[in-house]
Amino acid sequence: MSIPASPTATSDNVQLQQPTARQALISHALTGHSHSPGRSYLASASPEGRSNTPIDFDGLSFPSVGARERREDTEAQREARIQKISGAVRTILECIGEDPDREGLLKTPERYAKALMFFSKGYEESVTHLMNKALFQEDHDEMVIVKNIDVFSLCEHHMVPFTGKIHIGYIPKNGKVVGLSKIARLAEMFSRRLQVQERLTKQVALAMQELLDPLGVAVVMEASHFCMVMRGVQKPGSQTITSSMFGCFRDQAKTREEFLSLIRRNGV
Fold first, then answer.
1. Which of 70, 58, 67 is nearest to 190 (CA)?
2. Residue 110: CA atoms inside 13 Å, Cβ hemisphere, count?
3. Which of 31, 127, 133, 194 shows the smallest number of beta carbons within 10 Å?
4. Active-site residue 167, yes or no?
């Protein structure tokens, strides 16, 4: 199903699509950004014939500002980016009272810069490329669940880790299924960004819904946030659980309960 949008001409004669109210709402839920005139949707069709949806926005699937620039870095530009982060880390070390020139810290700024680039590598990945050639037709119309997927992310408020597990389920429509490893990779892609758990959970669910157009999607995530463990209230062992459900999982209590029961089970 395509979502109509209002075309806008540009100086380069590239046709952009002004988002509909639904697109703007989904985009805000996924990115945390409200729409502005400069944030338009490229008029390109997805591999599944779904056009003008947030899944295809800028070819980068719900990117933050600067995601495209980072993805298209040359080797020299990437090295310059790492050196810029390294300089900032050196300043931080000085500000907390450390000596960045002592032996143990000499290479710390560059190490941390490279680590941060890895922690946030999801900004360089695209849903459409991730799912390339991984959608199949199968005679299956029952629930598919991949559970206990380990995820590691950085809280965008304090830039400290939160870690946990995510459980993803869907019910195919018209036999359209996705490769199981791609479900885990989807969770990995969205988690390797600055995040809040609520948005991460919804991003995964919406991406599955947009890509597969299934009868329903259910995502549950449970995680421990180091911003609550190492600082602030300092409550080790606390868990945050979030869920996002669409279609039959939201509308039918029995379907939802079956999913929740299955992800709670240990073993077969």
1. 67
2. 8
3. 133
4. no
pLDDT over 70, % of the chain: 75
Phi then psi for residue 182, to 5 deg, are -70, -30
Please say whether the beta carbons of 82 and 114 come within 8 A: yes
137 catalytic residue (yes or no) = no
Strands 41-42 and 135-137: unpaired
Residues 21 and 57: beta-carbon distance below 8 Å: no
CA distance 79 to 215: 45
pLDDT value for 113: 98
User: pLDDT per residue over 50-89, tens digit each?
Assistant: 334 444 444 455 556 778 788 889 999 999 999 999 999 9
Let me know: does 240 contact 222? Beta carbons within 8 Å.
yes
User: Which of the residue ranges 45-59, 167-181, 198-212, 239-253 would you say has the lowest mean pLDDT?
Assistant: 45-59
157 classed as catalytic: yes
The one catalytic residue among 129, 156, 239, 252: 156
The first and second tokens of residue 194, run together, are 């600055």
Give the confidence band of 147 by pLDDT, cuts at 50, 70, 90: very high
- Is residue 182 within 8 A of residue 134, CB to CB? The reply is yes
pLDDT for 267: 65
Higher-pLDDT residue of 153 and 39 is 153
Place of tokens 């300089």: 87
Known catalytic residue at 158: yes
Backbone phi, psi, residue 125, to 5°: -110, 150
Q: Is 227 labeled as catalytic in the residue annotation?
A: yes
Give kind and range of the element (H or E) at residue 108: helix 108-119
| Of 159, 92, 79, 62, nearest in space to 120 by CA | 159
Q: Of 17, 23, 125, 155, which is the active-site residue?
A: 155
Distance CA 8, CA 147 (A): 42
